[in-house]
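Hi C.,

You asked whether I'd gotten around to modeling the 514-residue construct. I have! Everything is below, sequence then structure, no commentary in between.
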Amino acid sequence: MRGQHSVMSAAIRGVEAFLVEVEVAITSGIPGMFIVGMPDVAVQEARERVRASLKSSGFSMPNERVVVNLAPSNLKKVGSGFDLPIAMGILIASGQIDPRLAAGKLIVGELGLDGNVRAVPGTLAFGMCAFDSGYALLCADASDAVPIEGLRQLGLASLLDLARASRATGGDPCELAYRGVPSCRIVDGGLSGSGSYPDYADVCGHEVAKRALQIAAAGSHGVLMMGPPGSGKTMLASRVASILPPLEHHEALEAAVVHSVTGEGVDEVLAGVRPFRSPHHSATLAGLVGGGNPIRPGEISLAHQGVLFLDELAEFKPAVLQGIRQPMESGKVTLTRADGSIVFPARFMLVAASNPCPCGYFGDESKPCTCSLTQIRQYQGRIGGPLMDRIDIHLDIKRIPSDSFVAGQTGTSSAELREGVLAAREFASWRRARDGLDESGLGKPRSIIESCRLAPDDKAFLEQMARVYDMSGRSIMRTLNVARTIADLSQKEAVDRSCVAEALGFRIREGIGG
């Protein structure tokens, strides 16, 4: 029964899948199965799963020395997705199934002890790897469909199907064993992008805050809302995703890959709905930024192309909060380990909310604050000046009078706000195309200044305000960026003093800082 064969599979590192050749050799020696090539514990456990599933499916496990090599050997292999390729490699090497069943296919899947094939996280990443390498994707019959045009995706329900296909005489064994996975495509701009998120029409009052959040959505600016408990901060933040434009094709694919490798559903993302993540303030640095063993994306990467809402911002551990500073500017997370660096995408819109003090009522007009000035400074200082400096829009949220709720007043709806956001983004795209700016030029100081086209008097006004409030260079650039978005909302080609003044109003807040 001695023989040798190899099949193709893949390993996930970060959010990318890399080809792995599963080499199986059946040789003389002490019977047993040995897996080499930097396998983790889950891959080593495949020995028992494969042995049991083969026997329960009517196949025989070779009573010889079976060596499985996962190449390249310098790439760590994690997860149970190697069960199926190892089993098929053994069956082909021992002459129990037709080699055509594995030819031209990238194979991933976990095996149950009864021989059933189970889906594994990262189907989308595996599909992209298979397409780029010219393979068909063979996975569990219950796996998600990969929305890549031109990719052939096949599903296998059980090893019993391989046994039946191998016993059949004549015909293509692949047609007997595999089922075609129903095609799937990304809805490119086909939805409003609001998904199942609540509507701003349900929010009574807070029209200034809605205006600020519309500006933030139009320009993907970070927002910090500070106010007493019950003022509506969480209610306002939970509706931000409802006014964002739907995901474009490439955005949906980027976001869906991150969700896929963590085992989360991708249906809404592929339907154009932007992610909305709201981690608890007890989240660890690895949970927020990414990490662990094996390394997996954190909440800020799961919020890629969407919204990251950090409620009770001052309650997060300062070291955890400082971990999001670099991703806010670069749009990615780089984790360096002994075996190399892994990069996760993390281009998100930050929306944060916080009480102004430990008791929560500093600055409230109806309920007195019981905190000392030292306590207030320490509490707000937990957020950290460098992080505050990177948040474009700062808002004081006041509690709405009770009679407004009783009267059942309604305000501007999400549909109205979203209409302005879409128009502003379209105008900004036209403006950048006119000026010859691409994505790489966005956010650079020179590009921001040139795009504003400030008149000499307006420029002098900004310089004067910067001196009065001792604004840093980053604060000035972020203020100009917000002013440019305000001008886009009004379809203005140049930023005027009113735009600068409104942007300064959202930046310079007493008790919050600029």
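If it helps when you're writing up: Residues 414-435 form the longest helix (22 residues).

Thanks,
B.
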